[in-house]
Amino acid sequence: MEIVTRLGRKVEVNKDYTVDQNWEHFTAEEHDRWDRLYERQSRLLPGLACDEFIEGLDTLRLSESGIPHFGRLSDRLEKLTGWRIVAVPDLVPDEVFFDHLANRRFPAGNFIRSEAQLDYLQEPDVFHDVYGHVPLLANPVFADYMEAYGKGGQRAMGRGVLKNLARLYWYTVEFGLINTPDGMRIYGAGILSSKSESIFSLKDASPNRIHFDLLRLMKTDYRIDDFQQTYWVINSFEELLEATYQDFGPIYDELESDDTSYPVETVLDSDTVHNVGTQAYAEAGGRLAKEAS
């Protein structure tokens, strides 16, 4: 199947929605944009990102000039945890996404944000996917969690709970925080690939920071257009993996029988709370209002 990408390039898409990365198609300007994004985040993240992420950056040599070549990067990653990176033109269907994860393949967008979108992009591009996600795939425990999530998604197909499972991915893989001996740190890719949210998620008084609770989290809405109003905090990747390895059957049963969806800013009496946020940022209108002013 042939499609035209957002950049006007024609590409052949395989049945599993992968494409040839065709690394040579990236321009010098696009490689330079990656380098500037990489340098900016890498200056910012020490003391904010978890150690496992920083170690993954170094081990996988993501600082090499320009957008990484997926084949060479995959060869390094596969030796560590068995994962490979596959190029996709855009977001893929749920069943395809779960199949890739379940088989230790991480789909990464084959385009990079424009200069105008340098600070914020709602869709996942190659910088978000590779810089934000791939370093933690070099960590054996987190790598196992990602595979388990993919297999859990395959089991969830047809149960009517995919929106709940999406919340688990969103609040952990994309926007998760972790307690460490040196303080709270970031492990979620959506934060790690964003300069402004890296600071907001840890330093701002506005958001709630609540300890990870699988069922509670899966009943909580999230925002896709701005900073999160609630972040969920784990104590270790082992805690996350253990929660995912349990039998999800009873959880799916409860979600099917109780369709409660908590608003994003909700704090319950039963929550283990690290910080009750002021919600000042959201109440002021967030990013969209500031950009319009």
Task: Write the topology of this structure.
Layout: E1 2-4, E2 10-12, H1 28-44, H2 51-60, H3 70-81, E3 84-88, H4 94-102, E4 105-109, H5 126-133, H6 140-156, H7 162-174, E5 177-180, E6 183-186, H8 189-192, H9 195-203, E7 208-211, H10 214-218, E8 230-234, H11 237-245, H12 249-257, E9 273-275, H13 280-283, H14 286-292
Parallel strand pairs: 3-4, 5-8, 7-8
Antiparallel strand pairs: 1-2, 5-6, 7-9
Helix pairs in contact: 4-6, 6-7, 6-11
Based on the model shown, name its key terms.
293 residues; alpha/beta; five-stranded mixed β-sheet; two-stranded antiparallel sheet; globular; disordered C terminus
Walk me through the structure.
This protein is of the alpha/beta class. The protein has 14 helices and nine strands. Residues 288-293 have low confidence and may be disordered.
**Cα distance spanning the termini:** 44 Å
Please report the number of helical segments.
14
Number of strands: 9
Q: What is the ordering of alpha helices and beta strands?
A: EEHHHEHEHHHEEHHEHEHHEHH
Radius of gyration: 19 Å
In spatial order, strands of the major sheet run 6-5-8-7-9
Coarse shape: globular
Q: Segments where pLDDT lies below 50 for 5+ residues?
A: 288-293
* Strand residues, percent: 5-15%
Average pLDDT taken over every residue = 91
